[in-house]
Amino acid sequence: MDIELHYEEKGSGEPLILLHGNGEESSYFTNQIDYFTEKYRVIAVDTRGHGLTPRGTAPFTIRQFADDLLYFMNEQLHLEKAHILGFSDGGNIALLFAIKYPEKVDRLIVDGANLSPRGEKLKYRVEIRCCYKKAMRKASQDTQALKEAELLGLMVNDPDIAVAELKKIKSKTLVMAGSRDMIKRKHTLLIGRSIPDAEIKLIKGDHFIANGNPVDFNRAVDQFLTKQ
User: Fold this and answer.
1) Chain mean position to CA 228
2) Does residue 1 sit within a domain?
3) Would you state the pLDDT for residue 150?
4) What kind and span of H or E run contains 85?
5) How many domains, the chain?
6) Does the residue 78 lie in any domain?
């Protein structure tokens, strides 16, 4: 079932859609919205079940979120094409969206994305799975635990993207991650080397470089978007 996504919009020019990570909302990109508004029509989205966007009744999966983005572009904003910047789960959504709907993506930037849970460093994967199991045990009796279980389930069960699928991406692509990211560096490199002609950029910092190191992050994205 289609739902309308809540979003914040600022600026004018070519559309640049921002997709936040797990358990977050569009405000994660505060440092990017203000920066890129000078050149672009910046559209920061709350994905299904996040921020002010309702959960709805459709499956709570990365693939569903990619379909939600198609509905958002076609039916809510009537956009033929946009630059897409996704962080973490938002990066996973962006990858799947570019695979399924390549004609809708102008330039693609993914930050801290992964193809499967095995792309996460082991200590994070174990911790997330442990929290997921605890939340699942309480989910039938506690609505907050159910919401937490669904969010953690996105990292335990999703994404499920085959390396071969990345060949379907037609956009100019920038693959980013923090130098101390929770995603394995070799996994980030695998993604970047599997997308035709993609660029790879490691930024000093942890998983949250858009917040923690916005100067270097914004500069890298800006250079990529304006490169001829």
Assistant:
1) 25
2) no
3) 94
4) strand 82-87
5) 2
6) yes
